[in-house]
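Amino acid chain
________________
===
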Amino acid sequence: MANVTEGRGLCVAPFLQRSLFPSQQGYLPGRFCAPVPSLGGSIECCLPCPVTSWIYSDNFETIPKASNWLNVAGMVCTTSLLISYFVLPVEKTSRHYLTVCFVIAVCILQLGFIIPLGAQPEQCHDAITPNDMSSDLMCAFSGACLLAGGFAAISWGFLRSLSIHLQICWQVVPGRKLFWSSLLAGWGIPILFASIALARTGVSYRFGDTCHINHDKALQDYWGPLLAFAAVSTILQFATLGYCIRVYIGALFKDDGTSQSSSGLPSHNGSFKTVSAGQAYRRVQKAIGVQWRGIVIVVIIIVNVVFLAVVFVSMDNTQQAVLQNYGKATPWLSCLVTNGGNKNMCLDKVKGLATPEPEVMAVLILMSLNGIWTLLFLGRASMIPAWIELIRTRFARKHDFVSVDAKRLSALGRPYEIIASPPPQSAYTPKIPRAAVVVTSPSSLDGDTIAALSPHSQQDYFTRDAKYVSPTMSFSTPRPPSSGRYQGREWDPVNTYARPWSPGTGKGGMI
């Protein structure tokens, strides 16, 4: 930035001579210059940049910064809402593509106010010229987000109003065609008009660290289409509300007419009409009960954006009127010269030359609260327990499975791990099933086997040291014929009462 004293030239304080700043960078129409007669002829003297620092009080610079930090809080709200939409089940969030896209549009709008907080851009290119999107990259980003996000919020608000109107008033269920058409229109139209506005009008630092659309051709390129969509959306909202009121009043009158019939019982025709009115009323009541939050937030966003449009259009008209007739600004400019550039002595003479400071404060604060309003109206109380349950199931320690019998035995005071502790001496010893006992002669069993099979055995089968005693007659593993008690045993047919076999005759018989 050039030195202010060196750039003063033939102009008196606090003005600077325009011819000493020949740079063509920055937003040249943003300079506030006026011709001043001098001995050498007419010269142009300009107010130092930024002009808002001479028009408004010293506290004005804190308003844009405060609104930017409010947008940070709003971004936290909308981001948490989007994460809830993508993580939690739909029955807990009641998410819908119209709602999700609307929240994304609000996030883009907030980015236009948050980007300057991290970038800390320079508002002025030189001592009298503000920066624009061609001389400052952060200005281009913040202005593009502001234009696209504002138009997208209005577009998705319009599509939401249209969807509710079709469902309530015309009983049209939105299908796949409306889904793809909404996606194309909801994002295509804002991108189109934002691109046109950036190409034909541009953005620059008009007040604060956020770049706003310039006044040249802004009404026909951006504000006009934006206000048109907002107007149609408002008409649809009021048309739907009027239909709901008509259905409600119609249901009341039909109910009264039916109850006052002379016969005490409604006729067939009257009953049909009453049922139809009741069904319409219940359908409208259900739709309003589900959609009232979306309706309210859409109305709030529309009001805020329309208020922003009105303030900027008024600001542009006032600025153009002053530039075309410098006589309106003569008292204020003379006051600045007389007081040596002390603006506080001349603030009372600025009235009528610029948008009042309270209006600018109000529009910035209202735009900054959009994210908070979005969470309050589109958020659900059911999301809180859903998040708690999600965190609990993800990070809680998984417990082992415990059977019902173990719980019952534990409640009776008995040890859970029966195998680990032997029963008392007085405990009942389970009997061995009869099917498990091998019927054989006692002579074929050894002493250990008999002791193991005895019901009066004191062997402890309930401790970890219990050993499995393999029975002698076990065929679980193959054994050679000579093993076990069969060793040395011969076949005696007399003992088995079998008929002998004769090799000569091939028949059985006694030898």
User: Anything to note?
Assistant: The beta strands are 16-17, 33-36, 43-46, 203-205, 211-213. The first strand starts at residue 16 and ends at 17. The two ends are 138 Å apart (CA to CA). DSSP finds 15 helices and five strands in the chain.
